[in-house]
Structure formats: structure tokens, C-alpha cells
Specification:
The structure holds two protein chains of two kinds. Chain A is α/β, with parallel strands linked by helices. Chain A has helices at 45-52, 75-81, 97-102, 117-129, 145-158, 175-190, 202-208, 226-231, 234-238, and strands spanning 5-16, 19-30, 34-38, 60-65, 68-69, 82-86, 163-167, 194-198, 211-216, 219-223. Classes of the chains: A alpha/beta, B mainly alpha.
Chain lengths: 246, 344
């Protein structure tokens, strides 16, 4: 089980128009692991995430997701295999948390988006999994940042994805909620969900990453041993700061 | 039916109740508009006239050729305007967006005035359909500017200010045209450019009703992508919404809806913001599947009420519809802004 490849990037080059931001990426994502994209600002973490989530076309190369190609899949089909969670999205007012989570069923519902009994069960399960059942009728704009993060994660789970992608999920959270988020992600990975995310908070990365993908100067280097990466000065070299300054 | 195992299910009851209230309100306002006017007609006579009992009398003529088409137009166009406002608010993710504040109505007004004046010179009568086409063209012109600006400006308030400015420019150009084309025929044009339902004919109604109904149905079919879009454009894209196609639909539909209004009744201020907002508060949700029909009903009610006031408050003089919608609608817009500032 543990060594199933869920997603694979083959000689992938990402960027805009003809400008390559990160090139020649070869990486795999296994079932139930947390892979963290690390690197300085502007190195191309977001561009890579946008590309492997199918939001941006690659310059060259291929990304396979559960056997199919991310780029030739129909958007709705892709959304059943992966959830993308971006922070700082502007949301409309007057939506309950239940409304927000149920939107995760979008790729499964019919023409008018009406939830079937099965859809409702999935939504309920996702909310229970993240312990937010009591928030169902609460307005999404009247809950705390940590609760909001949980609601959005529940929405992502309601998509029933194999891969969860997150772009800087901890950046707006204080340390308490960051720890909580890391706990949740570890427990979801324990259920067999594969997580791939960009993250700046080194402490959190150390706590949850199974493997890293370090992005700098247009290249992506996989790191298998997270602990020694933090211990042997590699992390300082990645961010171009003196070894030992952390 | 169980909606959510944790929810108290109060939402659904409230929505049903809201629709009942809106429908009742619409019926009451419809009757009130039929009854009230400079010539008094008793309720008994009205029923007889509506059932086709009396024809040829002065009263039946007033009801059939003046009040009925006017009431239908006010209801249909009020609904269209509110729906257009709701689409724009969702698309720009801005609760005070609307066809009037974004300058879209004024753009439509400018183009219709241009075509009207040209056709007056040619000595021909403008068809209802051509008016809608001209108004749609003008709407798209303003909308084009707004979309270009919205790409540059992430701040919702500046977008609105730009919209208001575009509106002023278009209105100024319209005024210049109206002034220079000063002619007896222009009197009508002048009334129209201020916004009015007087002079609406059955011919107009026959064109506007199918146009608005088709636009309404097409809008309703966008309810699902709209609901995803309410949670952010990137989210919508990530769950499989064709954001490009969806955006084009939103722009065209809100343009057609507001163009139909401007073509026949001139620019009507603030209704497109106020009506959807009030409806949202009544429903307690922004789900498009409910908001689309409810905005339409709410807009129809709001517009019938305003037209009733416009016709009766200074009898025998009639105020322009925009005057009334501004007095009733603008405070609501201010209230929305203050509330949002307070919540932040």
C-alpha cells in the first residue's frame, strides 16, 4: 500500500509562455505521504503547484495522476482525483459552513448542483472527520481562522480526492492553528490521502513532511531524509543563509 | 427531506416562506398599481374589465392600453434589473456592484439615444428590438471598460468609483446629444433618458417579455457554476468550472438583462443593488439556485412599488422612476457599505 505511486512528474518544465521557471522536474508522490515543496520566494513553488494541479499548462513534460494525464483529463474528472486548497480566496458573504463544504461535491452533482443523499452523506462524513459538525449552520465569515481552515479542508475532503494540494496553508495562521493543521494533515495522510503542499514554516515542515522537494534556481531536488536535511546545513544553503544561523 | 444531519433545517422553511411572501407582495402591488391612478376605477370595474366584460369604455381603455402594459413592464424589467445586479455582484464579488453604479446603464442609454436621434433624422420609428440591440451594444461598451479596469484594480471600491465616472461620461454625452437635437420629438427622449415607464406599449411588452424570459432561463442554468464561483475564482476553476466560458455568460446575460431595461424605461438607479440585497437578507442565503428567482421576484416588487410612488406622489405630475428608486435604493446601498465596514 505504502509504495503506490499516486502522482508522477516526468521531465516537467513549468513557467509562463516561453519563460521556464522550474525545469526538468522528476518526482513521485506516494499514497499516504506528505510531500512539501520548499524554497525561497519566487523560486516557483506556486507555479509548480498550479501546473501539477492542472490550472496552468506545462511548457513541456507530463504529470500522471492515478494512471491518467493531468493535462488531458476533463476538469471535472481531475477534480474527483485531486483537491486544490488556496489561501486568501475572497468568498461571498452569507454562506454557512455546510454550504461551503457541500461545494466540494461540485464535480459529482448534476446540472443544477443539487446534492443527492449520497452527496449529503459524504459532506457529513467530511465535516465529522474534521470535527466541525457543530459549525454546520454557522456563517463562514463569523468563525475563527483555524475553524475556517478546517471548513476548507472538509470541502477538499468532500471531493473524495486521492491527492490534496495546498498552497501555503499555514501562512495566515498563528502557531496554535499551525500545529493543529499539521496534526490534521498527518492524520489525513494516515488515512491514505497523499498531500503535496508548499510551506514556509520550517518548524511545521519538520513536524509533518515525509519527503521534500526543494526548489531553487530553476531546479527541483527531491530530499528523502528530512531530518538530516535540517541537521546538515542543507536547509540554510537552500535559503542562501549562513549555515548554523537557524 | 433531511438536508443536513447537523442542521436544524430552519433554512429550507425560511426560503419557502420568503418565496410565499415575495409572491404575495407581487400580487398586492400588481393590484394596487391597477387600482391607483389619476382616473379612479373601482375594484369591481377592474375585475369586470380584466374578465373582458366591458370594452370600449374610458376605464377599460385606461386599464388595457395604459396600466396593464405599464405594470407588466415594471414587473418584468424590475426583475431583470435586480437579476442583472445579482449577476454583477457575484461576478465582481462586490456587494454594491450593479448595472447603474458600474455605468453600464448609462452606456446603454448613450447608445440608445444615439440610435433614436439618428432614426428621428431619418424620419423612421425605432423598433423595440433595435432599441434592445443598441442598449446591449452600449452596455457591452461600458462593461468592457469596467472589466479592463477590474483586472488592474483589486480594490472593489475603486472599481465602483470608476463605474460611476464612466456613468457620468456617458450621461454627459447623452445630454449633449439631447440638447443639440432639440426638437419637439425629443421631449419624449428627454423623459426616457431620466427613466420612466410611461409610454410603454403592448408592442414593447411583447418584445421585452420573451427576451427577459430567455435570459432568465439561461441565467438559471448557470446557477451551479455561480455557486462555485462564490467561493473564489481559483476554487471554481479547481473543481472544473470553465471559468472563461462562465465569465462570458455572466457578462452577456447581465448585459442583456440591463439593456432590456434601459431600452424601454431608461436608466433606473440603484434598484440593481438594493433589490438583491434585500432579497438576500430575507432568504438568509446567497445560493444562486434560490437567489436567481428570488431576485427577480424582489426586483419586480421593488419596481412596482417605486412606479406606484412615481405615479401618485405628486399627482398629476409624474416623477421619474429613477428619482424614486434613488430615494429608496441609495440608502440601502449606503447601509450595505456601512455594515461591511463595521464587520471588518
Amino acid at each position: 500500500m505504502k509504495n503506490d505511486v499516486i502522482m508522477e512528474m516526468k521531465n516537467l518544465s513549468v513557467g509562463y509562455e516561453d519563460r521556464v521557471v522550474v525545469g526538468g522536474v522528476d518526482a513521485v508522490l506516494y499514497r499516504g505521504e506528505i510531500l512539501v515543496l520548499m524554497g525561497p520566494n519566487g523560486a516557483g513553488k506556486s507555479t509548480l503547484l498550479k501546473t501539477i494541479s492542472g490550472q496552468l499548462l506545462p511548457i513541456s513534460g507530463e504529470v500522471s495522476l492515478m494512471g491518467g494525464s493531468v493535462f488531458s483529463m476533463k476538469p471535472m474528472e481531475r477534480a474527483r482525483h485531486m483537491s486544490l486548497l488556496l489561501t486568501g480566496q475572497r468568498m461571498a458573504e452569507m454562506m454557512t459552513c455546510y454550504d461551503v463544504v457541500s461545494m466540494g461535491r461540485y464535480p459529482y452533482t448534476g446540472r443544477l448542483g443539487i446534492l443527492s443523499e449520497d452527496d449529503k452523506t459524504v459532506v457529513a462524513e467530511a465535516m465529522e472527520r474534521l470535527d466541525i459538525a457543530k459549525l454546520a449552520d454557522k456563517s463562514f465569515d463569523k468563525i475563527s481562522d483555524g475553524q475556517r481552515q478546517r471548513v476548507l479542508l472538509a470541502r477538499a475532503l468532500a471531493q473524495k480526492p486521492g491527492v490534496l494540494m495546498l498552497d501555503e496553508p499555514a501562512s495566515h495562521l498563528d502557531i496554535k492553528y499551525q500545529l493543529e493543521l499539521v496534526e490534521i494533515l498527518r492524520s489525513l495522510a494516515g488515512d491514505g490521502l497523499s498531500v503535496i503542499m508548499s510551506m514556509h514554516e520550517l518548524l511545521m515542515v519538520k513536524k509533518c513532511a515525509n519527503r521534500l522537494l526543494c526548489i531553487s534556481e530553476g531546479r527541483a531536488e527531491p530530499v528523502e531524509d528530512v531530518q538530516s536535511f535540517f541537521d546538515d546545513g542543507s536547509v540554510e544553503r537552500l535559503f542562501d543563509i549562513p549555515v548554523g544561523s537557524l | 427531506m433531511r438536508d443536513c444531519p447537523f442542521s436544524k433545517n430552519s433554512g429550507k422553511k425560511r426560503i419557502i416562506l420568503s418565496f410565499v411572501i415575495l409572491a404575495l407582495l407581487l400580487a398586492i402591488l400588481f393590484l394596487a398599481n391597477l387600482l391607483v391612478g389619476s382616473v379612479g376605477v373601482s375594484p369591481y370595474d377592474i375585475i369586470r374589465i380584466l374578465l373582458g366584460g366591458t370594452t370600449g369604455t374610458k376605464e377599460s381603455l385606461i386599464i388595457h392600453t395604459i396600466r396593464l402594459p405599464r405594470i407588466l413592464a415594471a414587473a418584468v424589467l424590475g426583475g431583470a434589473l435586480a437579476l442583472s445586479g445579482f449577476l454583477l455582484q457575484t461576478y465582481f464579488n462586490n456587494p454594491i456592484a450593479g448595472p447603474f453604479v458600474l455605468g453600464i446603464s448609462s452606456g446603454a442609454k448613450m447608445c440608445v439615444a444615439m440610435v433614436m436621434i439618428l432614426s428621428l433624422f431619418q424620419g423612421m420609428i425605432l423598433s423595440s428590438f433595435l432599441m434592445i440591440v443598441a442598449a446591449f451594444f452600449g452596455s457591452m461598451l461600458s462593461m468592457g471598460f469596467i472589466i479592463l479596469l477590474s483586472k488592474k484594480m483589486k480594490n472593489g471600491a475603486t472599481l465602483i468609483i470608476c463605474g460611476v465616472m464612466i456613468g457620468y461620461i456617458c450621461s454627459a454625452i447623452t445630454d449633449i446629444m439631447v440638447t443639440f437635437a432639440n426638437d419637439a420629438d425629443i421631449v419624449n427622449l428627454h423623459n426616457w433618458s431620466k427613466g420612466s415607464f410611461s409610454g410603454i406599449s403592448w408592442g414593447n411588452v411583447q418584445v421585452m417579455v420573451p427576451v427577459v424570459i430567455i435570459a432568465f432561463i439561461l441565467t438559471f442554468l448557470q446557477a451551479k457554476p455561480m455557486s462555485a464561483y462564490q467561493q473564489g475564482e481559483s476554487f471554481a476553476k479547481s473543481v472544473g468550472v470553465d471559468v472563461r466560458g462562465f465569465s462570458i455568460m455572466m457578462i452577456i446575460l447581465s448585459g442583456i438583462l440591463s439593456a432590456s431595461v434601459t431600452a424601454f424605461a431608461g436608466p433606473i438607479s440603484f434598484l440593481g443593488v438594493a433589490a438583491p440585497h434585500l432579497v438576500k437578507r430575507i432568504l438568509g442565503t446567497v445560493k444562486p439556485i434560490y437567489m436567481i428567482p428570488a431576485s427577480f421576484l424582489g426586483g419586480a416588487c421593488f419596481c412596482l412599488l417605486c412606479d406606484l410612488i412615481a405615479r401618485t406622489v405628486f399627482v398629476p405630475t409624474e416623477v421619474s422612476i429613477s428619482t424614486v428608486t434613488a430615494v429608496l435604493g441609495a440608502p440601502i446601498v449606503i447601509w450595505v457599505m456601512v455594515r461591511r465596514a463595521y464587520e471588518k
